[in-house]
């Protein structure tokens, strides 16, 4: 479903300048631009007829199918929104929380309309999720910060919970305006028979689906080398399989711009 739907925030359609304007006091160096991974967020829905094409593209990105054309490391996250559930099929991975997150991007990027599939790159630029050339262009031109140096520890305090403890340095200086360290728990290899809605009769495959999303901490006035620590606790879903899941950690300021990210696969036997 191309950009024509859902809500108008009346703030114009101009995309936000991708320059860094709110979280760090250091200028990007060439070393930083060659640094860590670019965070690519897809907002989609199983109730949207064009989202499966974008989901397939995301899966191929994750497999490295475009390695020769896109020599930039990426961290991929798929947020399934819930505003298409009324069309006859309720997305089992959809959440109003992800809809709120997309709304925040619409406002931050000064767009008029919410739509699926939408891709947001580093929190600074966006495009239609099926436009591969545009996605590649935004990824290549995205400002890149060094990856944080977190060490991760995973524990299961109970059968239905996962505890993620992180310790390390952000490798990016944060000023008095501050930034949040966010942690996303995602799942790969999801297959859904879709008997209703715009994708009626299709078998839908989804990877990098965000199942849980929490803030590790908020930081202010810290150096790039300062060690920070924190723990998040996730309530798990029925059928949780650690071998299909990973954790993405990234730093994001109040304007939703991203400054450095790391990715961890969960142990198979967790």
TrEMBL record:
It holds the Pfam family DUF1223. It comes from the Eukaryota. This is Thioredoxin-like fold. InterPro entries: DUF1223 (IPR010634), Thioredoxin-like_sf (IPR036249). It comes from Macleaya cordata. Residues 10-31 are annotated as: Disordered.
């Amino acid at each position: 479903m191309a950009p024509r739907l859902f809500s108008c925030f009346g703030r114009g359609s101009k995309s936000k300048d991708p320059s860094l304007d709110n979280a760090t006091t250091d200028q990007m160096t060439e070393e930083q631009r060659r640094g860590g991974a670019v965070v690519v967020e897809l907002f989609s829905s199983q109730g949207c007829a064009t989202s499966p094409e974008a989901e397939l593209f995301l899966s191929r990105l994750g497999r490295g199918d475009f390695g020769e054309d896109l020599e930039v490391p990426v961290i991929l996250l798929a947020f399934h929104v819930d505003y298409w559930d009324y069309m006859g099929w309720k997305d089992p991975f959809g959440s109003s929380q992800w809809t709120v997150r997309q709304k925040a991007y619409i406002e931050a990027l000064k767009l008029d309309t919410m739509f699926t599939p939408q891709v947001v790159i580093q929190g600074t630029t966006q495009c239609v999720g099926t436009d591969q050339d545009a996605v590649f262009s935004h990824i290549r031109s995205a400002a890149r910060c060094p990856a944080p140096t977190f060490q991760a520890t995973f524990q299961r305090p109970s059968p239905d919970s996962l505890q993620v403890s992180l310790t390390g340095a952000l490798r990016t200086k944060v000023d008095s305006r501050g930034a949040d360290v966010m942690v996303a728990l995602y799942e790969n290899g999801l297959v859904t028979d879709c008997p209703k809605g715009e994708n009626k009769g299709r078998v839908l495959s989804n990877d990098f689906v965000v199942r849980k999303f929490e803030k590790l901490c908020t930081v202010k006035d810290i150096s790039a080398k300062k060690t920070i620590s924190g723990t998040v606790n996730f309530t798990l879903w029925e059928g949780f399989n650690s071998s299909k899941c990973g954790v993405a950690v990234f730093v994001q300021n109040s304007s939703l711009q991203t400054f450095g990210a790391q990715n961890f696969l969960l142990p198979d036997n967790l």
